[in-house]
C-alpha cells in the first residue's frame, strides 16, 4: 500500500533562517506531488505541484522553493524565512488520474 | 479549473442528516467532483467522488443533478466526530485539472450534542 511521510511534525524557526521540509512517498511510482500551506482557520493554499522529476510548477510568488530530487521525494525550502511563512504545511500525492489525493500529517511551522 | 462555492459554515445536531451543497457553474464535461474532510491539525481525507447522478459509500452520499452545476454531500446521522471542514473539489483530465488540485475555502461543519 502507498504511504506518505512528512517531517518534521513541528518546527520553530527564527526569522531569516533557512527551511527544509521533506516529504517522501512509498508504494507508488511517478506520483503527482504537492505542497500546500494552511494559515490558522483558513483553507488550503497550493504552493507547488510536480508531475515528475524536474517538473515543478509554482502557484504563488513567495520566498519558498520546491525541488524533486527523486521520483518520490519532494522538498520545500526557503533561504530566509519570514514571519508570514508561519503555518501548517501539507505534502500530498496523487496518481494524476483523478482528483483523489493523499496527504501527509503536516508540519506546523512557527517563525519567530 | 472549475471554481467552487460552498457555505462558509453549518451547524447540526447529533443524529441529524447534513447536506452540504457546492456550486460549480463552469464545470467542464470531463470534470469529476470530489469531497474531502479535514480535522484540525490533520491533512484532508478523501471522502467521495462522482461524475453524475448519485454515488454512495460507507461514509457519505454524493448527489449530482443532471446539469452538474452543483453537488450535494450528504452525511447521514452525524455524530460529534463529524465536526470538520469539508471541501468540494472539481477537476478533470483537461487543462491540468488532475494535476493542479486547488481547494476552495471549505465548509466548517459543527455538530452539537
Tell me about this structure.
- The complex is a heterodimer of chains A (112) and B (113).
- Chain A is 0% helix and 59% strand.
- Chain A contains no helices and 11 strands.
- In chain A, strands 2, 4, 5, 6, 9, 10 and 11 form a 7-stranded mixed β-sheet that branches. A 4-stranded antiparallel β-sheet of chain A has the order 1-3-8-7, with no helix packed on it.
- In chain A, a hairpin with a 6-residue loop joins strand 9 (87-94) and strand 10.
- Chain A starts with a strand and ends with a strand.
- The model of chain A has no long low-confidence stretch (mean pLDDT 93).
- In chain B, 0% of the residues lie in helices and 46% in strands.
- Chain B has strands at residues 9-13, 18-23, 32-38, 45-50, 53-56, 61-64, 70-75, 84-91, 107-112.
- In chain B, strand 5 (53-56) and strand 6 (61-64) form a beta hairpin.
- Chain B is globular, with a radius of gyration of 14 Å.
- The termini of chain B are far apart.
- The chains are: A mainly beta (112), B mainly beta (113).
- At the A-B interface, strand 4, strand 5, strand 9 and strand 10 of A face strand 4 and strand 8 of B.
* Total DSSP E strands of chain A: 11
- What is the number of helical segments of chain B per DSSP (H or I, 4+ residues)? 0
Taken from the alpha-carbon principal axes, the silhouette of chain A is globular
Number of helices of chain A: 0
Which structural category do the helix and sheet elements of chain A fall into?
A: mainly beta
Largest sheet of chain A: 7 strands, mixed
Biggest interface and which pair forms it? A-B, 27 and 24 residues
Radius of gyration of chain B: 14 Å
Runs of chain A in which pLDDT lies below 50 for 5 or more consecutive residues are: none
Category by helix and strand content of chain B: mainly beta
Order of H and E elements of chain B: EEEEEEEEE
| Terminal CA distance of chain A | 38 Å
Helix percentage range of chain A? under 10%
Percent range for β-strand residues of chain B: over 45%
Question: What distance lies between the first and last C-alpha atoms of chain B, to the nearest angstrom?
Answer: 38 Å
